[in-house]
Specification:
Elements: H1 5-17, H2 21-56, H3 63-92, H4 97-119, H5 123-142, H6 147-159, H7 164-181, H8 188-201, H9 205-227, H10 231-259, H11 263-272
Helix pairs in contact: 1-2, 2-3, 2-10, 3-9, 4-7, 5-6, 6-9
Amino acid sequence: MYNRLDFIVPWYVDGYADLDREQEAYLDELLAPFLAWHRAQELPLYVQTLQEFEASLDQPVSAASMTALTRRFECAWYRIEDNALDWLLDLGGRLSDEQMDKFMQSLWEEHEEFREEYLERSDKEYYEDTLDSFLDNSRDYLGRLSQEQRAMLEAANARLVRSDAAFAGDRAAWLRQLEGLLQREPGWQLRVREAVEARRGNAPAEYQKVYDHNLAVIQQAIVELLNSRSEKQDRHLRRKLADLREDLEKLVAQGEKDKGPPAAERQADSVQQ
């Protein structure tokens, strides 16, 4: 799928705004440097992070190292967000008022779908869903869990605070703010950037409290789970991480190959011909 992002992203964007042919062609031009940047600059950082994490498994995993790992991936997401805003805002300047209205309508429809799917759950259903997520992710990386490990995850799951209502409230507030910004008064693109940046450190107190609590619970559960792994689970985990790292390395190499030989080498070939 990564190698098809040049098709997937425009298809995804078109689902929100119904781009015309000229806008689609312009989006293709905007995406090319963004996708090249991500392959050349970001994927090697992911590889490095995985290598360091694999090496850290030789020692007991600490809460501090798990917090640092989480922060690295959070920063990676922010870099994607910042760079994606370049082409999103550029394209946004070319949308008609009708297309922009369709875009906001699609966001609000998604929000309502989220509310209907998640907020109508009972507390029992909520905690069943979060436990299923815990177990599925854990089995994916460790294989079969012991009864003790399952009990550990069940205890962590019970400590979570229900977050879907807080998330929905925060998202609704953001959509209302975005709706005003996308009236596209002079300077709107800068104000969107400032608003996105402000959201990172100024979430509503209720939502931030829930988020911080649940993140701490999840990180601690991962630390305890990793430190309880058997030799068989350790082999499964390392094999899983190695496969992912190798996939990323192949994607990086494909990007290098697509760029062709260095300029000096191309010049030498030309002279030789």
